[in-house]
Write a structure and sequence with these properties.
The complex is a heterotrimer.
Chain A lengths: L8 H15 L10 E5 L11 E7 L2 E8 L7 H6 L3 H8 L8 H15 L5 H30 L4 H20 L8 E2 L2 E2 L7 H24 L2 H7 L7 H7 L4 H5 L6 H4 L21 H24 L19 E9 L2 E9 L7 E5 L1 H5 L3 H4 L5 H11 L3 H5 L1
Antiparallel strand pairs in A: 1-2, 2-3, 4-5, 6-7, 7-8
Helix pairs in contact in A: 5-6, 5-12, 5-15, 6-7, 7-12, 12-15
Chain B lengths: L1 E2 L2 E2 L2 H35 L15 H10 L11 H19 L16 H8 L2 H12 L3 H32 L4 H10 L12 H4 L1 H14 L11 H4 L10 H25 L22 H26 L5 H29 L1
Antiparallel strand pairs in B: 1-2
Chain C lengths: L8 H19 L20 E4 L9 H5 L5 E10 L9 E12 L8 H5 L5 E4 L13 E2 L1 H6 L21
Antiparallel strand pairs in C: 1-4, 2-3, 3-5
Classes of the chains: A mainly alpha, B mainly alpha, C alpha+beta.
Chain lengths: 393, 350, 166
């Protein structure tokens, strides 16, 4: 499947102009609009997100997301915890791609300590990171179908996600919250037979991607619902700080795995960054499908080139991170997630600021929802793909 | 009329008709819910469905009915109480009215109505009223949106249904459903009467349009905007719980069954097999045992059609309502009008 | 060059669901019919924590490092007879109370990891739900019972540096 463009530049500009025109209220014919709350309890928002919309019939006049219903006070919690405890807590921010949350925090702490994990640990970290991405985005593909109304693909997504979760459980002990990363490396090495099982699972997951492509993306009704809906042009996407697949679907060729030198193993294997020139919902969904497939290939290639060696560097038993500040961001399944760690030579961090991807991703919601119809709200929210734990922390 | 030699008084006949009608509506509804909603949907999703209640989960429907019946009767404070209570009944009543004209055998019918098709099309629109009323009466913005969408959609798809059926009426030359069955089973195609003349072969366009219109009339995916579970959380049914929701639920699947029965009468030959297999020539010739076998044949044909309806329902995402309306007005109606034209020309020419 | 007529995606989608249905009918479903059949969790699965009382010295490292502070330890020192005749009596630790509150436990494993005396072990048992939340506080004897379910550590993959920890 190639990146086929459906919208020309003029069409895109016309679409944006039409949205802006619809947003201006016609003063002579001021009909009373209806204020509709989407959420906080709603099947379409991934959790407790509230979007207040002012509707004129079925068209949105303005919309505003109201987040915070799931605020758990992460940044405050981290002030009174030690580094291993923070690693545990941080698993729970983006709960679908859980290992990916630990990694930037650990990398920031390692940067402050001035150590690097051994190559085998870097490899395994990257493999688990990509597995979290597959688990997260695999569910997105099914969830997307449910928002559109097709009830079957989500079961296939959960079914095939089980294989990945079983893999993560076999290596780390926890399906959803692995808590496997440590400053200086990993907690433990892989159990016997894990590599072969992973190879089989990756093959199965490619079959799953093909199934989703036929069942969901090949469906003409789905294409009618997503093509041309919710166009976010490149400049707007960059201004609002979108990241991850949302940015790449707007045509920006930016992937932190490739553009940044981190002590992880992404630069040891060949892989492709997928972008799409249309910036509509179809593009965002398509990019994620391609990324899932690409992740399965990355995992297989990393398994082929796995070095032997220790999984933990020489670190003291009780870790005290020296004084300093460090910021590390990685390409998480949801987008760009970064941790700004300030440490004062103590058992735990002094302050951690978590830059989560979904918080910035939904900042574009007021802009993109002007002038769309109510069903398209759901389509656009589904294609932006956020997780409440990531927004509210 | 006499059954097995016993003369039954009129009130007895009416009682039998009422019982028969109830069975004819509820039995398909129950079977459809179990076989297709519980089991087929589960199998398509790689799981087994309900297995605990009864052998292989066959008693699950009774368990669910019991659960709904014992729930509290909640009516929103600002809802219009009388209308709120009446709305589900309107939808169910239209199903019972519909089944009154469906023939199940040469003598097994509720009424032998000369304008059966006309009556059927008229009465099937009554459910639209029930849905619209349910949406307005619940004091809930989501239900209102669902009800308004439903009104637009159901009225839009009435027309293709009517136009599709007119092709059959032209070909049969009558609006009486029993006579339509007769025409199909006693007829012949190009002189060969081995298969009778099932109208699905000549009216395949009409059949397609009718099935799509039925999918929309039942508000099933891909036309389930009025319910739109991921947006409106059940649309017009949101505020209904317990017994009232049970009525909506049964009505949805009963109507699916009854529409499938009607489709099998109009397109698949109804309760009969081609008369030439038994060398009958018209309904008067048909043996009496057909009165028992006929309902079974109807049941089988109905199950086949509902399978297709449900299969499509579990696979496709839903249309947006303007796409839906566009599809009805710009695609289905012109196609069915063309179908009528071609049928009329061919009927007169041959 | 004749083009093959493309089957519309709508029909291919129908084919996928029909395929899945026939697979379920012929080969069985992907789901496990719990409680009639049970899946065995992997060896490293973090189900419940078991305590080997003999190794514990009440150093309180686990209680201090728990993010939830769900471990409650009380102990006292006792004098035990000397190892050799003529020696000084040894100070031995005796645990009075070692409770883990599984209503609070996050199953992170920090306590198991920091224990310097190998007194805590992971076990993949997961079926210990209780109707009363107070019963989720497992005391010393119950934690000792879980020791029987602790599996051997799995062998490690080729290329690993050291033998597996628990």
């Amino acid at each position: 499947m190639s990146a086929d463009t459906m919208l020309g530049d003029r069409q895109k500009l016309a679409y944006i102009a039409a949205q802006a025109a619809d947003a201006r209220l016609n003063v002579e014919l001021e009909t009373e609009g209806m204020t509709l709350n989407i959420g906080p309890q709603h099947p379409a928002t991934h959790g407790t997100l509230r979007i207040v919309c002012r509707l004129d019939g079925e068209q949105v006049v303005w919309a505003e997301p109201s987040a915070g219903y799931m605020h758990r006070g992460y940044e405050k919690l981290t002030e009174v915890r030690t580094f291993p405890q923070v690693t545990t807590l941080v698993n729970r921010i983006d709960w679908l791609g859980s290992f990916a949350n630990e990694v930037p925090f650990i990398l920031a702490s390692e940067k402050l300590m001035g150590i690097e994990a051994p190559p085998r640990a870097q490899h395994i970290r990257t493999i688990l990171f990509e597995l979290s991405r597959i688990a997260n985005v695999g569910l997105f593909l099914g969830d997307l179908a449910v928002q559109m109304g097709a009830v079957t693909p989500v079961f296939m997504a959960f079914r095939d996600r089980e294989y990945v979760l079983n893999l993560i459980e076999g290596a780390t002990g926890g399906r959803f919250h692995p808590n496997f990363d440590r400053i200086g490396g990993l907690k433990d090495d892989l159990p016997k037979g894990w590599i072969d099982e992973t190879r089989q699972v990756m093959r199965k997951l490619r079959g799953f991607c093909d199934e989703m492509e036929t069942l969901v993306f090949g469906n003409e009704i789905f294409q009618m619902r997503t093509r041309g809906i919710g166009v976010i042009p490149k400049e707007i996407a960059l201004q609002y700080g979108l990241s991850g697949a949302n940015l790449r679907a707007s045509g920006v060729d930016y992937d932190l795995r490739r553009d940044q030198r981190l002590p992880m193993a992404w630069d040891k294997v060949d892989w492709k960054v997928w972008t799409h020139p249309d910036a509509d919902s179809w593009a965002r969904c398509w990019v994620r499908l391609m990324e899932t497939r690409e992740s399965t290939l990355i995992v297989e290639r990393l398994l082929d080139t796995m070095p032997a060696g220790p999984v933990m560097a020489k670190v003291p038993r009780i870790i005290k991170v020296p004084e300093g500040e460090a910021f590390v961001a990685t390409e998480n399944p949801l987008g760009e997630m970064g941790y700004y760690v300030i440490s004062k030579n103590d058992l735990g961090p002094f302050r951690v600021k978590i830059r989560s991807a979904s918080f910035n991703n939904i900042s574009v919601v007021p802009w993109v929802l002007r002038g769309v119809l109510v069903p398209d709200i759901i389509t656009i929210l589904a294609s932006l793909y956020f997780i409440l734990g990531d927004i509210d922390r | 009329m006499s059954l097995l030699g016993i003369v039954i008084p009129y009130w007895g006949q009416s009682l039998l008709r009422v019982l028969g009608g109830t069975v004819a509506v509820l039995l398909p509804a129950g079977t459809i819910v179990y076989l297709f909603l519980f089991k087929m949907m589960s199998f398509m999703q790689s799981r087994l469905g309900p297995m605990e209640a009864g052998p292989y989960g066959s008693m699950q429907l009774f368990a669910e009915v019991g659960k709904w019946l014992q729930k509290e009767d909640i009516i929103p404070e600002r809802a219009d109480r009388t209308i709120f209570k009446v709305a589900p009944l309107i939808v169910l009543v239209s199903t019972f009215l519909l089944v009154a004209v469906v023939p199940f055998g040469p003598d097994a019918y509720f009424t032998n109505f000369d304008a059966g098709v006309f009556y059927m099309l008229a009465v099937s629109s009554v459910s639209v009223l029930g849905i619209l009323v349910a949406g307005w009466a619940s004091a809930n913005k989501y239900s209102l949106l669902g009800g308004l969408r439903a009104a637009g959609q159901l009225i839009a798809y009435e027309l293709p249904m009517v136009l599709a059926v007119i092709g059959v009426v032209i070909q049969a030359g009558t609006m009486n459903l029993q006579l339509i069955v007769n025409e199909q089973n006693a007829g012949s195609m190009f002189g060969w009467d081995g298969l009778g003349n099932p109208y699905i072969l000549t009216q395949f366009v009409g059949f397609g349009v009718f099935m799509i219109a039925v999918q929309a009339e039942l508000t099933q995916t891909p036309f389930d905007m009025p319910i739109a579970e991921s947006e409106l959380v059940s649309g017009y049914m949101t505020e209904y719980s317990g017994f009232r929701f049970l009525i909506f639920f049964i009505a949805e699947f009963a109507t699916a069954g009854v529409f499938a029965l009607i489709a099998s009468v109009l397109f698949l030959g109804g309760w009969g097999v081609p008369f030439s297999w038994f060398s009958w020539h018209s309904i008067a010739d048909v043996d009496d045992w057909m009165n028992v076998v006929g309902p079974l044949i109807m049941f089988t044909k109905m199950m086949a059609l509902v399978f297709v309806i449900m299969w499509v329902r579990f696979t496709y995402p839903r249309f947006r309502e303007d796409q839906l309306q566009r599809f009805a007005w710009k695609a289905l109606i012109p196609i069915s009008l063309l179908n009528i034209m071609v049928t009329a020309i061919l009927k007169v020419a041959f | 060059m004749p083009m093959k007529p493309k089957v519309p995606g709508l029909f291919k989608g129908l084919g996928v669901t029909l395929n899945t249905m026939m697979t379920t009918v012929t080969k069985g479903a992907n789901t496990v019919q719990y409680p009639h059949e049970k899946e065995a969790p992997p060896i490293r699965a973090r189900g419940v924590i078991a305590l080997h009382e003999g190794n514990c010295t009440s150093c309180m490292l686990c209680a201090r490092s728990c993010p939830d502070w769900c471990i409650y330890i009380e102990g006292h020192k006792e004098l035990a007879p000397p190892r050799r005749a003529g020696g000084a009596p040894r100070k031995v630790n005796k645990l009075d109370r070692f409770d883990i509150d599984y209503a609070l436990c996050m199953y992170c494993g920090i306590c198991v990891e920091v224990c310097p005396f190998d007194a805590l072990f992971w076990s993949p048992e997961y079926e210990y739900s209780e109707p009363r939340i107070a019963d989720l506080l497992h005391d010393k004897s119950k934690l000792g019972e879980w020791m029987e379910t602790v599996p051997e550590a799995p062998e490690l993959e080729a290329g690993a540096d050291k033998k597996g920890k628990k």
